[in-house]
């Protein structure tokens, strides 16, 4: 949510538009003013650490099962959706919710008004055989045509033209976010995972921190982050600051922040492997307890048993077999704080995933980047 007086287009109470789509033309994006930041969604790891349920202890099972919140995406969206893939692959929509209530209010900033945003969105494509994955980040500031959708309470929300991508979640929650992504990609989202501010921070602290290396100093008072160049062991608060910062790196855009998020998630996956949580039952339980309190899933994943099966399928994916890209976009020449889908290149991405193929390098060549690549490594 912007701290500026003018509401964001596409957010309830915002201006919006019914005009035609502007064509994307590249140019450097101007740094924006102070904004409430999003977070990196680490549901990938949150799912992976739930394997503690394999101990078979009844108390553990029921305790963790009772922690999980789920939403019935399939019932809300009905049959008017892309067909499920028949090639053995799966697509998971992973969202980071910028919630304005409870413990998230202090971390997110602003009033405790109960509202929420999808400040981070990733389409995770798991290839047949579950040994490789592609992760496509969707910039929250992308102007899109949002389809009509029905939320999980049964309320129908009108379609809108030229609105921000993250307006879908703000308008109709998880179901409308899934509907919008499916409309944008023509890919069926088989699962949905969501993590919030406070949960992300607790997960990192439970893990004992994550080690990253920065190639340059990062100083962003808005994100409470001050890191000199070098190697750092980040606690939960510092990690949250890193994945929220936009002013401290690159061109000050959300695209630069996405590059930091992608680098951090690889470091986090490596961290889980290195600390040996799968051989330490106490640590694994503590992490699983925090994770199940943190995530919201689709109803098909809304139990420990389902999450265990899902997590087992992801354990074979190493970071060297994770291809992380940003949906091809170009800066909007009419508004420096927005981006437009590069339709031809984006289609290359979605077609490759639909056919369970690697994303071609040509799909992201010459697109807007945020100029923060390589600033953070594991």
Q: How many DSSP E strands? A: 18
CATH fold node name: Aminopeptidase
Radius of gyration based on Cα positions: 19 Å
CATH superfamily placement: LCP protein
What form results from the Cα inertia axes? globular
Q: Helix amount, in percent?
A: 25-40%
SS content category = alpha+beta
Task: Determine the N-to-C terminus distance.
Answer: 30 Å
Major sheet: arrangement of strands: 1-14-9-2-3-4-15
Mean pLDDT: 79
Domain count: 1
Order of helices and strands: HHEHEHEEEEEEHEHEEEEHHHEHEEEHE
**CATH hierarchy class name:** Alpha Beta
Main sheet makeup: 7 strands, mixed
**CATH architectural group:** 3-Layer(aba) Sandwich
- What percentage of the residues does DSSP assign to strands (E)? 15-25%
Low confidence ranges = 1-21, 23-57, 100-115
Q: Tally the helices.
A: 11
Overview of this structure, please?
This protein is α+β, with helices and mostly antiparallel strands and 378 residues long. Helices cover 33% and strands 21% of the residues. The chain has helices at residues 43-48, 58-67, 73-77, 104-108, 167-185, 197-207, 236-244, 254-275, 281-294, 304-314, 343-354, and strands spanning 69-71, 90-97, 118-126, 133-137, 142-146, 149-150, 156-157, 160-164, 191-196, 210-214, 218-220, 225-227, 230-234, 295-298, 322-326, 329-331, 339-341, 376-377. The strands form five sheets. A seven-stranded mixed β-sheet has the order 1-14-9-2-3-4-15, with helices on both faces. Strand 16 (329-331) and strand 17 form a beta hairpin. Helix 2 (58-67) runs parallel beside helix 9 and helix 6 (197-207) crosses helix 7 (236-244). Mean pLDDT is 79; it is low at 1-21, 23-57 and 100-115.
């Amino acid at each position: 949510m912007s701290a500026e007086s003018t509401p964001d287009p596409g957010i309830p109470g915002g201006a919006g538009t019914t005009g035609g789509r502007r064509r994307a033309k590249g140019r450097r994006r101007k740094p924006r003013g102070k904004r409430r930041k999003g977070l990196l969604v680490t549901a990938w790891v949150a799912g992976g650490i739930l394997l503690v349920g394999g101990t078979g202890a009844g108390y553990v099972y029921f305790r963790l099962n009772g922690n999980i919140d789920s939403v019935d995406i399939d019932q809300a969206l009905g049959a008017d959706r892309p067909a499920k893939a028949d090639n053995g692959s799966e697509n998971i929509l992973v969202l980071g919710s910028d919630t304005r209530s409870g413990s998230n209010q202090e971390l997110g900033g602003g009033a405790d008004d109960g509202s929420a945003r999808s400040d981070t969105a990733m389409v995770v494509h798991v290839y047949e055989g579950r040994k490789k994955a592609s992760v496509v980040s969707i910039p929250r500031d992308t102007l899109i045509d949002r389809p009509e959708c029905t939320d999980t309470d049964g309320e129908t929300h009108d379609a809108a033209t030229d609105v921000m991508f993250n307006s879908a979640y703000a308008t109709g929650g998880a179901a409308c976010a899934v509907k919008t992504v499916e409309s944008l990609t023509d890919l069926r989202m088989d699962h949905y995972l969501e993590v919030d501010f406070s949960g992300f921070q607790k997960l990192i602290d439970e893990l004992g921190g994550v080690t990253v290396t920065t190639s340059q100093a990062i100083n962003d008072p808005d994100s409470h982050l001050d890191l000199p160049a070098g190697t750092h062991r980040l606690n939960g608060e510092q990690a949250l600051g890193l994945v929220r910062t936009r002013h401290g790196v690159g061109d000050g855009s959300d695209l630069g922040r996405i590059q930091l998020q992608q680098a951090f998630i690889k470091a986090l996956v490596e961290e889980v492997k290195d600390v040996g949580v799968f051989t330490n039952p106490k640590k694994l339980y503590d992490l699983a307890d925090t994770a199940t309190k943190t995530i919201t899933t689709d109803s098909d994943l809304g139990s420990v048993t389902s999450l265990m099966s899902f997590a087992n399928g992801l354990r074979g994916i190493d970071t060297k077999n994770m291809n992380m890209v940003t949906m091809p976009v170009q800066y909007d020449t009419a508004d420096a704080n927005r981006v437009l889908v590069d339709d031809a290149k984006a289609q290359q991405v979605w077609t490759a995933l639909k056919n369970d193929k690697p994303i071609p390098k040509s799909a992201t060549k010459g697109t807007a980047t945020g100029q923060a690549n390589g600033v953070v490594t594991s």
